[in-house]
Write the structure tokens for this entry.
Amino acid sequence: MSADNQPRLRRPVLLDNPNADRIRKVSALAGRPARRRTGEVLVEGPQAVREAVRFCGRDLIDVYISEDAAERYPELVAEAKKATHWVHPMTAEVGRAISPDCQGIAAVVKDFRTDGLPKIDWDFVVVMAETQDPGNAGNIIRAADAAGADGIIACSGTVDISSPKVVRASAGSVFHLPSITNVGFDEVAEWVKARGMRLVAADGGGSIDLFDAEDGLESLDLAAPIAWVFGNEAHGFERIDTSAFDHSVAIPLAGHAESLNVSSAAAVCLFSTARTRRRMGA
């Protein structure tokens, strides 16, 4: 076949109308109703989109990249084009219409959450019980991922972890480990106990000192199967049955700070657990 007769690949059309129906549908995914209706999730920003491209596989639906962002992140553009045919160039104005927080890069993926508790056995689990702030939830998921947790359970009353704000705060960790939703705390507690895990609350008024537990001076063995529970930013565990907890753990504070926020506390507790498990070969 001569060069003149070779099939020509169509150049992707530049998306330049911020009011187009397609753009409106994508931007609507910032809201829960659109996510529920479509079963799709909006991913904002280069870091979260990069992880979606690398880990979502066939659940990656579309990628949108502005001309400026394509120049700043050429390696991300190359990865996205290997992962899907649906990489759409767009103007900066369209990017802002999709999301003012996307930095010129956005993606749409299928909903990554799973309803109902898994039948497989985990031994290092993170439970969010009515955690409300998207930034805190995303940071807890990121810390859980980095510490080597098996999965995340977001109990009923917790912020929607498919929210773009949670996805962005997690830096894409939502795509790295299973996320369970639409389960009540009582059901989670029963599931944890049935699998031989201890249900452990991170609580400023807890009776066990985390550092003493890490040093083996407490009855809590951080290397054994464990489910950490992190509560509501304002109310803590006031709205759940705390009698289900096997242990309540406090982080010792050396300075004048009254407390840590829930995501900072989660990072300390989870890495204390990870360090102990590593030392004990768990």
Q: What stands out?
A: The CA atoms of residues 197 and 279 lie 19 Å apart. The mean pLDDT is 94. The chain has two domains: 11-110, 114-280.
